[in-house]
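Title: Comparing notes on inverse folding

I've been comparing how different people in this forum approach sequence design from structure. To keep things fair, I'm posting one structure and asking everyone to reply with a full sequence. Here's the target:
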């Protein structure tokens, strides 16, 4: 194994040679649901939120399964069904039920036609909330296990902001998660989960499927922090995650993972977890407990990934005469990639009140608010027209209501698969981006396609938490603004009431045992 590479590259080395008792070309299925959903956001993720992949489209989603690649040739692949959504609010029950039924029925139909699966790639996020449920991934895992039967080896890839409940732990045989935040290794991690699965199926474990299952040492760590405080760019997360490759290289170990947990859902499973998998019970338990203790002991040392301030404080820095440019401000409370609705108007309302931002003396880009009606009104007016529009707060009106923007239609853009039609309204030097659908602005081309030049801007305001790589490179300096919304960074003011007892920082008196639970599937 090498150091983490660009996500487009192949990360794992060649598969181990097949043992005489291993499976030559195992039959492997693929299915899952991936969404990170805030229970504090009024947004509801329905059918329209999910991109559904089946058949060749699903196989093609994973470059490491391209024709001719070793992992593609090492198994007989059966893509079942996968639903993936941008983070948002909790999933509508009927939407979840339809996707779950499609997965379960697809597995059963395939087994009836072609026989049982030897392995299964269960591709999930780990922070899906469904209205009226707790532990949605656990519910889905139980249904998948029931459909597959007890002998199929299931391997899962997860986001490090997912949660590993006891149910999920017991129904899935092999689990791993990202090791980077921002998630530059997301595709590498999926490859690792598949590589681990195939390596196990090829190994010297005989005909008994139970012997193919590694033991899993699982330690819940009662700490729940936002991702912006646990970025692997900084200590202590950087040092703790740096332990994992060394553990993975030990004899008797297959994989080691740390889940931060998801801070913006109010469910008992929401906390941090450590899991080490392998065949040496003593080693995996020891290492899982050691890393869990490191995480717990560092709980008060985690800090935000950037200097933080109120929006007013962030603007004071950005407007200072000696401020480096472009200056990036994270509008963190409504970050759609953490589950925010994406149409909170609080920040834009405040920006429009600032004469120095709307007098034309500097260029400010504000991304973004989604409001399809406002985009359509701008389209009807046309580029160059003067308009006065009421925008946003159609979904999340808690922090502020719709904002009135009176300005000129700077540009109108079609063809973005995520955002739909887009409009830019300019007020002096402030360019407000309005999209028809929720969209995160992570790439410089997201701005350029609208006729905007982020590199020439004085200030760029983006609904995001920690900056994704291109924004990070863009920023000459930046501040994480602690703004209101469904993914408010101030967790204590959100109102969690259903977490497990003793979770820090909601309870600062805890003293957990941090003892590993070591299990094989037959124990559950």
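Reply #1:
Here's my take.
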């Amino acid at each position: 194994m090498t150091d983490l590479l660009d996500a487009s590259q192949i990360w794992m080395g060649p598969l181990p040679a097949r043992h005489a008792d291993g499976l030559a070309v195992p039959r492997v299925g693929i299915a899952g649901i991936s969404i990170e959903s805030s229970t504090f956001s009024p947004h509801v993720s329905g059918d329209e939120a999910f991109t559904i992949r089946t058949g060749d489209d699903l196989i093609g989603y994973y470059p490491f399964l391209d024709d001719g690649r070793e992992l593609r040739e090492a198994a007989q692949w059966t893509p079942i069904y996968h639903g993936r959504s941008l983070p948002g609010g909790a999933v509508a029950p009927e939407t979840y039920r339809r996707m779950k039924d499609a997965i379960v029925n697809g597995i059963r139909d395939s087994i009836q036609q072609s026989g049982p699966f030897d392995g299964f790639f269960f591709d999930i996020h780990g922070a899906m909330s469904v209205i009226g449920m707790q532990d949605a991934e656990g519910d889905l895992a139980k249904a998948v296990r029931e459909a597959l039967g007890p002998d199929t080896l299931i391997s899962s890839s997860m986001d490090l902001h997912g949660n590993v409940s006891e149910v999920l732990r017991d129904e899935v045989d092999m689990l791993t998660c990202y090791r980077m935040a921002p998630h530059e290794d997301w595709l590498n991690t999926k490859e690792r989960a598949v590589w681990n699965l195939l390596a196990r199926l090829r190994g010297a474990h005989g005909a008994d499927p139970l012997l193919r299952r590694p033991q899993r040492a699982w330690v819940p760590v009662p700490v729940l922090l936002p991702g912006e405080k646990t970025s692997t760019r900084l200590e202590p997360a950087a040092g703790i995650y740096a332990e994992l490759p060394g553990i993975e290289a030990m004899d008797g170990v297959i994989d080691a993972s740390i889940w931060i947990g998801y801070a913006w859902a109010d469910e008992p499973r929401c906390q941090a977890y450590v899991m080490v998998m392998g065949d040496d019970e003593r080693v995996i338990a020891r290492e899982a407990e050691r890393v869990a203790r490191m995480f717990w002991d560092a709980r008060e040392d985690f800090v935000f990934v950037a200097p933080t301030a109120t929006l007013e404080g962030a603007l004071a820095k950005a407007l200072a005469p000696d401020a480096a440019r472009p200056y990036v401000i994270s509008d963190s409370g409504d970050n759609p990639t953490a589950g925010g609705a994406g149409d909170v108007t609080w920040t834009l309302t405040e920006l429009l009140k600032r004469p120095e931002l709307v007098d034309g003396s500097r260029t400010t880009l504000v991304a973004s608010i989604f409001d399809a009606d406002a985009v359509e009104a701008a389209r009807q007016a046309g580029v160059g027209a003067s308009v006065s529009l009421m925008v946003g707060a159609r979904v999340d009106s808690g922090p502020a209501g719709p904002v009135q923007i009176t300005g000129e239609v700077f540009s109108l853009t079609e063809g973005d698969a995520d955002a739909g039609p887009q409009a830019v309204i300019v007020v002096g030097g402030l360019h407000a981006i309005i999209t028809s659908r929720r969209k995160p602005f992570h790439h410089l081309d997201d701005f350029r396609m609208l006729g905007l030049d982020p590199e020439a801007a004085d200030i760029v305001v983006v609904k995001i938490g920690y900056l994704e790589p291109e924004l990070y490179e863009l920023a000459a300096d930046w501040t994480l603004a602690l703004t209101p919304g469904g993914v408010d960074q101030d967790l204590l003011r959100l109102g969690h009431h259903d977490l497990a007892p003793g979770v820090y920082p909601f309870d600062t008196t805890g003293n957990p045992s941090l003892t590993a639970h070591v299990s094989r599937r037959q124990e559950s």
